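Lecture 7, part B: from sequences to assemblies.

Below are the input chains for today's worked example.
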Amino acid sequence: MSDVSLVVNGRKVSGTVEDRTLLVHFLRENLGLTGTHVGCDTSQCGACVVHVDGKAVKSCTMLAVQASGSTVTTIEGLANGTDLHPVQAAFKENHGLQCGFCTPGMIMTSVDMIARHPEGLDEATVRHELEGNICRCTGYHNIVKAVLAASKTMAKGSKGRAKAAA
Amino acid sequence: MYSLNYHRASSVADAVKLAKKGDDVKYLAGGMTLIPAMKTRLSAPSDLIDLGHIGELKGIKVSGKNVTIGAGTTHAEVAANEKLKAVCPAVSDLAAHIGDPAVRHKGTIGGSIANNDPAADYPAALLALDATVVTNKREIAAAKFFTGLFETALKDGEIVTAVRFTAPAKAGYEKFRNPASRYAMTGVFVAKGKANGKDDVRVAVTGAGENGVFRSKEIEAALSKKFDAAAVEGVKVPSKNLMSDIHASADYRAALVVVMAKRATAKANS
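Predicted structure of the full complex, as structure tokens:
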């Protein structure tokens, strides 16, 4: 067993876990943050993507102890009260989902992608960048549309705010 | 995943010391291969030594044409490094196409080569670039480092600390991906550099060999005459010692070597 302490969505948290505990299970079971999903368990689907120290990672492929000392943002940490994050709003607006299971990971990946491409995005880049996120419902048409729309909205808004939200 | 003991190393020396305890100790770099293998219980170390927090293993140095990449540098960092892009864009491009963005944020060059997956991308680059693998004990030429499927010249407890190479005049990498796993079913790295003052063309193939990465003499001979995609046209690569599996036969992979070499050369010349 090891002690783990993290800052999750701006809140200091700690716990004692088995060393083999995956970060995603710590988030879901110890912290009750069930917005982060386990889809495939083989590191391919991306439903479990969260940000660790500002970078999108697959939380099913990282131990909780590995992340100890880090700052983590999950899907629950994006919205500001009842104001959706621009990427969440764009997914809603463009109907970038059907069943919604992959959506938290899609959104966390998209927020990271937009932050890394301040110059803007095109469809080919979005599709390449979404390679690690699998949707089994709809195809990716509206998801790509949502990411492109969010990227435009965030470029229009102050760049500082977009970064802080990421 | 089986139960294990986690240790976080603060330095390379600390990692070596920690590795002396425990029955079946493994070093953990980015964990992008090791953790999935542990989840499926293909790998079950008693102790994990996390190298992910060791500052001395991170970073890229470019001095003229000489490149040193710290073993703990992630694929995303390699892909984004402007100095590396300026001297050897082929390596940046290769790193930008490993796995997906989340994998590139965690996976490291040291972890990739120490694992030596027969379908990994970096082994092809290192072999074609005649790179040197630096460990905490010695320096090993890439040609002697990769010894077989998931096998390297690393001894027990030895840690890869950096990779060093001289940027060639031209280089390019192209792979044909498995549509599901996205690993290279065949990947070819071509490099045109200098050895003893003469042009030296080296071509390394990953994803296809039964014993992991290898150099293709046939493609090297063709490109040595003329470093042009057209020069590879019609070259016959023997299918002996190539992998045959559910995804592709050895003959198909032999054909892919030629096609990927053509595309890689075109990229190198572009």
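Note for the exam: Chain A has seven helices and five strands. Keep this in mind when comparing with the next example.
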